[in-house]
From TrEMBL:
Alphabetic keyword roster: Membrane, Transmembrane, Transmembrane helix
UniProt cross-references to InterPro entries, sorted A to Z: DrpB
Any GO BP annotation: cell division
Organism, scientific name: Klebsiella pneumoniae
Top-level taxon in the UniProt lineage: Bacteria
NCBIfam families (UniProt xref): div_DrpB_YedR
Listed name of the protein: Putative outer membrane protein N
Transmembrane segments: 13-34
Length: 49
């Protein structure tokens, strides 16, 4: 149980690519919420009549 798993350089690269992809996805979602949250709807722009 104490022995660490040995990864090949390709495995490490794949793991870092996965981490980078997940981090990028989180960044995109947070940025989307931040941009959309700053948009305030203009009164009368809903096209209600």
């Amino acid at each position: 149980m104490e022995e660490q798993a040995k990864r090949s350089p390709g495995g490490k690269l794949a793991l870092w690519a996965l981490y980078a992809f997940c981090g990028y996805c989180v960044w995109v979602i947070v940025r989307y919420w931040w941009v959309v949250g700053k948009i305030h709807s203009v009164p009368g722009a809903s096209g209600g009549g």
